[in-house]
Write a structure and sequence with these properties.
Radius of gyration: 36 Å
Helix content: 25-40%
Number of helices: 7
Strand content: 15-25%
Largest sheet: 5 strands, mixed
Structural class: alpha/beta
Length: about 325
């Protein structure tokens, strides 16, 4: 009997211990001792990125050796093919990474959710194209700087592919508005007589020449639009002169045509190509084979004229 009572007390004591430990943390759950190992999900390896260079304050567009056209709004840079590329990265609502090279340099546009390492990889993939376009843009800027004009008496500038000499000291214009008269005396070639006194400041001379070119541009462009529109089977509705930095012209679906007034520096055949190009967009709002075939119907040598437009240097203007 005593033995049975002792066993009962021992049993109750063990149960009380379990009750006292009821609030304790349970033992850690053990994983299976044997069986299939867990799969380790590794993150995709990042592609090799272009070397990012520290900001050393260099901002020259094309002066430093090994630097290609540093974008004036640059916020990122990379080393591509041994060349330092300083570019503007613009985030936006889009689905792809896009690249454009203009007079200011390289601009990269990317969706807001794309990580930088993917942009770096895209830069590497397009590095050959980027470097080629930046070199072309740098060469074009160099030619433009050589074509810079110190506006004053006797300066020359291109007009419809010919050289025009500026002459100051013409007759006073009516109502005090500076005027310009173009004449060809058969000896000195084309002379643009400006109604400005000798010694006028360069900005006044430049403004007068620019105003004259704009006045000449509208009737010239209108005549060429009227010439090509019926041949292309389209109808244009309005003309606007533009001062765009990267385009010589554009067209809208409602028949609007925009042409840069500086086209008046080029010879007439080049202007005709641009006019026909924009009118052809009224039939094809793209640059598909159908579009170029349409352009070729009225300007058969459009490829040569397009190359001339891209390679020729015209005076730089402050606008």
């Amino acid at each position: 009997m005593q033995r049975l009572m002792q066993l009962a007390l021992d049993f109750l004591g063990r149960g009380g211990d379990r009750g006292a430990d009821a609030g304790a943390m349970p033992p850690a759950r053990r994983g299976p001792a044997t069986g299939t190992p867990r799969l380790r999900v590794s993150r995709p390896r990042k592609p090799p990125a272009p070397e990012l260079l520290p900001d050393d304050g260099a901002g020259e567009a094309d002066g430093a050796a090994g630097t290609l056209l540093a974008h004036p709004r640059a916020n990122r840079e990379a080393l591509l093919g041994g060349q330092r590329v300083v570019y503007a990265l613009v985030r936006g609502r889009r689905r792809t990474i896009g690249f454009s090279v203009g007079p200011d340099g390289l601009c990269v546009r990317a969706p807001g959710w794309v990580p930088l390492h993917q942009i770096d990889a895209a830069l590497l993939e397009k590095s050959a194209w980027i470097l080629r376009k930046l070199a072309e843009a740098g060469d074009r800027r160099g030619r433009q700087r050589q074509a810079e004009i110190a506006w004053g008496d006797g300066v020359r500038f291109p007009y419809l592919g010919r050289e025009v000499t500026v002459a100051l000291g013409g007759a006073a214009p009516a109502r005090g508005v500076p005027g310009a008269v173009l004449a060809d005396d058969g000896v000195n070639g084309l002379m643009l007589q400006l109604a400005l006194p000798a010694g006028s400041p360069p900005d006044a001379v430049a403004a007068t020449v620019q105003a004259w070119l704009r006045r000449e541009a509208r009737p010239w462009f209108t005549a060429r639009l009227d010439h090509f529109a019926p041949r292309l089977g389209v109808q244009w509705r309005r003309l606007a002169l533009t001062s765009a930095r990267t385009r010589w012209g554009s067209a809208s679906g409602d028949g609007g045509i925009r042409l840069h007034w500086r086209l008046m520096h080029f010879r007439p055949e080049v202007i005709d190509y641009v006019v026909a190009h924009e009118l052809a967009h009224l039939r094809h709002m793209d640059h598909s084979p159908r579009f170029w075939a349409t352009v070729a119907t009225v300007v058969p040598d459009h490829l040569r004229l397009r190359a001339e437009l891209r390679s020729d240097a015209v005076p730089r203007w402050s606008d």
